[in-house]
# Entry
Amino acid sequence: MAELEIEVEGTPNPKAAKFTLGRSLPYESSRSCFDAADAEGDPLAEGLMAIDGVEAILMLGDFITVTRSDDVTWDDLVDVVSRVIRERFPDDGGG
# Structure
């Protein structure tokens, strides 16, 4: 199985980054999480919200926007967020 390709880009908000994936997420509409309770029951969302310094996530189409807190930098987060996405990306059996 090919590794999920993730491209990271900045956004107009310096506290947010867009993680574009090589394939679409299996959600019928956008999904936003602002705390652990919002992410409950979704392994990908739970994993992302459990990362120290992640304040919010928005998942839509083929990307995830992650908003960080002021006490961490993107240097601290990009590799960790990318690893969690790769580990927990929902396997829909497709390719």
Notes: The mean pLDDT is 92. The first strand starts at residue 6 and ends at 10.
